[in-house]
Amino acid sequence: MQQRTLGKHGPQVSALGLGCMGMSGMYGAADRSESIATIHAALDAGIDLVDTGDFYGMGHNEMLIGDALVGRPRDSYRLSVKFGAQRGPAGDWLGYDARPAAVKTALAYTLQRLRTDYIDIYRPARLDPKVPIEETVGAIADLVKAGYVRQLGLSEVGANTIRRAHAVMPVADLQIEYSLISRGIETAVLPACRELGIGITAYGVLSRGLISGHWSRDQATDARDFRQHSPRFQGDNLAHNLGLVELLRELAEARGVSVAQLAIAWVLARGDDIVPLIGARSRTRLHEALGALDVTLGADDLAAIEQAIPPDAAAGERYNQQGMASLDSER
């Protein structure tokens, strides 16, 4: 497995990470046994970065991962955890809580669910507008000193917030959406991270399956699948975006790879400080994604891809109105 270092201050990790959100209901029903088998297959293939959030399935995802990791040496994998999102019993979103006491309480529950003594990278899922980022980071710094957390991460915050957080404590990595059709970080966020020596863990590299080459109009039928509420998956936007996928398919077939492999390889090619998170829910999709590591894109390849799909090619925002309003990275 190829290795990459998360910036100047972060750990060395596998060139691909495993994002586990989709194993806990966010994309509709998931198969528990296949989810665990997929985690095992990822670890066996050399993936050592496992990403979750304590609000994925209201703790379900952490417990699932905890079960899957039983018997694995703790130093053979790294856990990246997001916290702070508040959800009701019906799964509704209630905002964010990143007060110092809430940070420490959330970690206490996370440690129990994941059956571990420490978290490798701990990060607020979003900026809490009611709490200065310095206070949230200060609480995580306390947890680092106590040995419960190894390093600080951030998620979906803008350049100014990154600088403020980094001034309190070195940031290992920023987790943020980045793909061929989600390139907003290139303007200010990515340059700030590179200036400060902060790595990027990129989620949504296949735009939640939209540019995987496997998506079709009739797939989002489960009411629990939040893609039903995503502007990119609706109406004329979806038709337009699937047209982009067909352009990408032509390029992929000419190179003897799948659409997903080409899209992941493009993110890998954007810099050695970027680690794509693969949201595979099955071993089949995982194995396809791993194939991206064998795809080498030269300057001509990258130029052809970006000519077919320029930065603003996608139709629709990446989240609904409520979701976009919560993104400090979009301000």
UniProtKB/TrEMBL annotation:
Family annotation (InterPro entries): Aldo-Keto_reductase (IPR050791), NAD(P)_OxRdtase_dom_sf (IPR036812), NADP_OxRdtase_dom (IPR023210)
PROSITE patterns: PROKAR_LIPOPROTEIN
One Pfam family, short name: Aldo_ket_red
Source domain of life: Bacteria
Keyword list, A-Z: Oxidoreductase
Residue ranges occupied by any NADP-dependent oxidoreductase domain in the UniProt entry: 16-308
Gene3D superfamilies associated with the record: NADP-dependent oxidoreductase domain
Protein name, entry field: Aldo/keto reductase
Upper taxonomic lineage: Bacteria, Pseudomonadati, Pseudomonadota, Gammaproteobacteria, Lysobacterales
